[in-house]
Amino acid sequence: MKIKKYKLVREPQLIEFEKQLNKHLKEGWQLYGNLTLDTENYLYQSMILME
Q1: pLDDT at position 1, please?
Q2: Per the structure, how many domains does the chain have?
Q3: Which one of 6, 32, 44, 45 is least enclosed by Cβ atoms within 10 Å?
């Protein structure tokens, strides 16, 4: 299998971040790498969609 698409989810609020992740997971996206928090308190999660 090959990576078809790559996406970076970025949100400052945990509730919205969780909504975005759940939406993409239901669409078949997979988590890719670790959750990251930057100095401005934005949450980041890489996601991939496989062929």
Answers
A1: 87
A2: 1
A3: 6
